[in-house]
Inverse folding.
């Protein structure tokens, strides 16, 4: 369960705790809607819309987004950056919970821009934390951790223990997702102790839920049950039907793991009633799947099939593909036990097809990460080889260990897949024809995995070389002090290379992109540049008349993006600007992109031409466009890219 990531909203409701905790979710929402209908000022309407957005998220994502958009309109009329920044933050949270991460990131960036203008450091780093949550939902753990650590450092430095606790808890969730249970348990126990000391029962219970999940995964069932029951007691006392229902479901899952089917059913049924009352559709489906598992364990196959079908319908409505795949797999033996081989074959085939597509997506992401690391290793390997030549034997040993681990993981996956196939063959003797088709599909999948493994092994061996080289430098006493700057340059160069390769793979995988997608990419880049370079104001303007859905070939998009990157990097490196503006507009039948700074400028005829200007002009030529560079010493630089609209 993800921890809370809304800082201002929590502070607002601390002003009226009786209303928050004495009412159920539906009563609270009805009360807020009544207040909205009688609100006499725009500011009062905005504050109530903010709360409606927040508290509708666990009930209805679309309704929460609708209230969030209304709040944006009201907040804009107030000309108050703090209120508008909160409105964008609330809407970003609603989009994140719905899974629309691009829209969520866009709204959080708008919120961050406004909060930089107000100068409220606490709100700035709260928004940085929220962006970390978006990256975490997008499985970009490195970016999420970078945002969290930046925020945690600020909150600890300023003595803001409450917000530091929120961030620390989110870091614990990352470790939990990575299945590093000891590290996650250590962090959650610190968070639980703090929240209990603060008598914040609600957040204390949410942390207990995470701890219960860890104990369950470690098969320490008695500890897990004890923690879950304590969380359940608190949520009941707080009158929170939503989290009470999810905790009932957690207990049902725990009891199913122990083959205590009757206990699982009784807790799941109580959770089902509450989930329906609060409109928690996804959790309702999870509880139904738990009930189906319980009845399967009791060999009540008709009842098990009934709940699996209900859960499948609700998961499809939520577009929860991983859960849909799980339902397909679990339903196949139920139909086999019911003597319905055709239906069993259908769901088995459906599982294989969907799981294959999801696996291909995972392989694509893995390949992208490995390629990024490979490119970084290639650029740094020459330096590392010169300084660590005497340690090559150790590097080969490390490479062999990594290769053995990778082969062990792949072997385990293949073993697990084969074990599952054998179980299906024993249970479904009448499905040989269908399983023959599945075997063919599995062979195709294995070939794809082999290709991915070959790429992984080759890159892994090389990557181990550079990583081990850097690590060993720390212990090479005669020269470690003189190489400190090397560590920094290698680390920075690695991050830059990984980012550039991700951008390239993003464009390659997209096939075709739109101006809106490219604009979002440029905006993200400027935002990250603004965070990492203090004292420089970055602005991005796109003419409203431009069609956001205007298509671009992916290769064209990455060329334009690289020109923007090169221009900004040159400005930061040589011009020492205080402001950089990137604007996109339409002039006649041409698309015009301008990168302008107020830096030192230069006279092109008096400088030695480098690869930067040459590369930008070369990219412009390949795009069929024209690049103009206007600069005067002391008066800044303007780089204009003109492209014909196709």
């Amino acid at each position: 369960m993800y921890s809370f990531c809304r800082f201002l909203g929590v502070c607002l409701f601390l002003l009226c705790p009786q209303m928050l905790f004495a009412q159920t979710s539906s009563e609270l929402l009805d009360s807020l809607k009544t207040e909205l209908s009688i609100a006499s000022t725009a500011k009062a309407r905005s504050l109530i819309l903010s709360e409606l957005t927040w508290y509708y998220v666990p009930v209805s994502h679309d309704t929460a987004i609708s209230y969030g958009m209304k709040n944006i309109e009201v907040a804009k009329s107030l000309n108050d950056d703090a209120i508008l920044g909160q409105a964008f933050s609330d809407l970003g949270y609603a989009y994140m919970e719905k899974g629309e991460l691009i829209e969520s990131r866009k709204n959080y960036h708008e919120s961050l821009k406004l909060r930089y203008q107000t100068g409220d450091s606490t709100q700035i780093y709260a928004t940085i934390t929220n962006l970390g949550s978006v990256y975490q939902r997008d499985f970009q753990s490195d970016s999420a951790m970078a945002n969290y650590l930046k925020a945690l450092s600020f909150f600890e430095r300023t003595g803001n223990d409450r917000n530091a606790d929120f961030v620390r808890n989110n870091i614990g969730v990352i470790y939990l997702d990575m299945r590093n249970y000891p590290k996650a348990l250590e962090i959650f126990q610190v968070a639980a102790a703090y929240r209990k000391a603060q008598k914040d029962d609600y957040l204390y219970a949410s942390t207990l839920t995470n701890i219960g999940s860890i104990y369950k995964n470690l098969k320490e069932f008695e500890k897990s049950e004890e923690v879950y029951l304590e969380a359940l007691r608190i949520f009941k006392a707080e009158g929170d039907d939503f989290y009470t229902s999810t905790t009932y479901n957690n207990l049902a899952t725990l009891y199913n793991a122990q083959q205590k089917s009757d206990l699982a059913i009784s807790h799941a049924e109580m959770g089902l009633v509450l989930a329906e009352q609060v409109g928690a559709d996804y959790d309702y489906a999870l509880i139904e799947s738990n009930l189906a598992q319980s009845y399967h364990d009791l060999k009540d196959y008709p009842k098990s099939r009934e709940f699996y079908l209900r859960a499948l319908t609700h998961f499809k409505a939520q577009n929860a593909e991983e859960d849909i795949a799980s339902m397909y797999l679990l339903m196949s033996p139920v139909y086999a036990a019911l003597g319905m081989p055709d239906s069993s074959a259908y769901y088995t085939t459906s599982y294989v097809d969907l799981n294959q597509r999801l696996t291909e997506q995972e392989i694509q992401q893995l390949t992208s990460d490995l390629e990024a690391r490979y490119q970084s290793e290639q650029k740094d390997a020459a330096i590392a080889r010169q300084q660590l030549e005497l340690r090559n034997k150790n590097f080969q040993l490390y490479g062999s260990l990594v290769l053995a681990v990778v082969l062990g993981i792949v072997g385990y996956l293949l073993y697990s897949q084969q074990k599952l196939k054998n179980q299906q063959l024993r249970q479904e003797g009448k499905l040989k024809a269908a399983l023959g088709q599945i075997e063919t599909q599995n062979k195709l999948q294995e070939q794809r995995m082999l290709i991915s493994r070959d790429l992984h092994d080759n890159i892994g061996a090389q990557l181990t070389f550079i990583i081990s080289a850097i690590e060993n430098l720390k212990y090479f006493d005669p020269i470690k002090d003189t190489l400190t700057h090397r560590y920094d340059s290698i680390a920075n160069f690695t991050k830059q290379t990984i980012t550039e390769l991700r951008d390239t793979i993003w464009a390659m995988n997209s096939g075709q992109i739109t101006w809106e997608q490219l604009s979002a990419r440029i905006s993200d880049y400027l935002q990250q540049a603004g965070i990492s370079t203090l004292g420089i104001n970055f602005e991005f303007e796109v003419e409203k008349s431009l069609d956001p859905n205007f298509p671009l070939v992916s290769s064209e998009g990455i060329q334009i993006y690289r020109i923007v990157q090169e221009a900004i990097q040159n400005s930061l490196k040589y011009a020492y600007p205080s402001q950089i503006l990137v604007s996109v507009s339409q002039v006649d039948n041409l698309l015009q992109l301008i990168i302008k700074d107020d830096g030192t400028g230069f006279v092109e005829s008096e400088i030695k031409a480098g690869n930067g200007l040459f590369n930008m002009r070369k990219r412009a030529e390949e795009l069929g466009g024209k690049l103009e560079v206007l600069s005067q010493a002391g008066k800044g630089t303007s780089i204009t890219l003109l492209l014909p609209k196709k």
